[in-house]
Write a structure and sequence with these properties.
This protein is of the alpha+beta class and about 325 residues long. It is about 30% helix and about 40% strand.
Length: about 325
């Protein structure tokens, strides 16, 4: 009987301790870290917004060389997912889902840890002007119900996750500042663009689908040109007629300058008129040509230049002949008034 009483007292004391701890323990948490990055705001935000870029500055990817990830949905848009799988002792498995985007301001996300334990929280990545630099913020927050909130007394989220966020922003700073330095070295030239007729395929294309669109379109155009006896008289090009940044969709054409008209059920002739223009010669992988576009847009805005609707990318290097992407030459051309 005495043993039962002792057990009963112990149980009551334990319950009281749990109740007291649960009452005094925080029921929510928030972690945020900030970093000033010497780069344009839109470039910093681009690297924060796209899950495909996250691997280049993820502190967990740096820590776990076995970690792999996939991106589902339209990257950079609401609903896009970053799904990772790594060492159970280091990074585990989980996913982050884009829950909203304010262009060049904020991207919010939902974080779901699947292993080694299940948990849900919400987070954000933000950018703001900081003089001639950009302040980047990375944070997340969530709630722990009673009695699980007791864990926050012994495992404070800020101390657990804060250093990871700091390291991630350091990696982001290194990555983006290197891109910004390359962008700053790009030279804008004035030119006269000569009217050019392309055998082309025009379509509204999502950013995530551009690579496959180019591959399939250039193959179809080349076949059609051969069948029609037309020869290539210029560089294969991308012709952009409009771009909806928030939706990540472009009205564009893949085109090859042709010596004679080429018209099939898929291929049409696309003519770009003669115009004054600005150009940038960019050397590097196609994935980095956006740096040339950012440099061009900064130049146009600074000099208050009126542009026409058409933008071209001329691919002057054949990747099959030059395997090193750093040597690929792309000319960016903006038609101006």
């Amino acid at each position: 009987m005495k043993i039962l009483k002792v057990i009963g007292v112990v149980v009551i004391l334990v319950l009281l301790i749990v109740v007291v701890l649960a009452l005094i323990a925080p029921k929510s948490y928030q972690v945020e870290r900030n970093m000033v990055i010497h780069a344009p705001k839109h470039l910093v935000f681009r690297y924060m917004q796209l899950w495909s870029n996250f691997g280049s500055w993820s502190p967990w990817a740096e820590r776990d060389s076995t970690m792999t990830f996939t991106v589902e949905g339209v990257d950079g848009q609401e609903g896009a997912k970053y799904i990772w799988e790594g060492d159970p002792k280091k990074t585990g498995t989980g996913e982050m889902t884009n829950t909203g985007v304010k262009a060049n301001e904020e991207m919010t996300f939902h974080l779901f840890f699947k292993t080694p334990w299940k948990s849900h929280s919400d987070g954000y990545m933000r950018v703001a002007d900081a003089g001639d630099s950009t302040k980047a913020s990375w944070g997340f927050y969530g709630k722990y119900p009673i009695p699980w909130n007791i864990m926050l007394l012994f495992m404070p989220m800020d101390k657990m996750i804060g250093p990871d966020f700091e390291r991630g922003l350091e990696l982001l700073k290194d990555t983006v500042e290197a891109k910004a330095a390359k962008m700053a070295n790009l030279k804008v030239k004035k030119m006269t663009y000569r009217s050019t007729s392309f055998a082309g395929i025009r379509k509204e294309v999502r950013m995530s689908e551009m690579k496959s669109f180019f591959e399939s379109s250039f193959a179809k155009i080349s076949q059609a040109m051969e069948a029609k006896g037309a020869s290539m008289i210029g560089a294969p090009s991308a012709i952009f007629f409009s771009w909806e940044e928030e939706k990540g969709i472009a009205d564009m054409a893949a085109g090859i300058p042709a010596s004679r008209p080429v018209i099939t059920d898929q291929v049409q002739m696309v003519t770009v008129p003669a115009s004054n223009a600005l150009s940038i010669d960019f050397y590097g992988p196609y994935e980095e040509t956006e740096l040339a576009h950012y440099a061009m847009m900064d130049y146009i805005q600074t000099n208050q230049i009126s542009t026409r609707d058409i933008v071209l990318e001329e691919y002057l290097t054949d990747p099959a002949s030059v395997p090193d992407p750093q040597k690929w030459h792309t000319r960016i051309v903006y038609l101006i008034k």
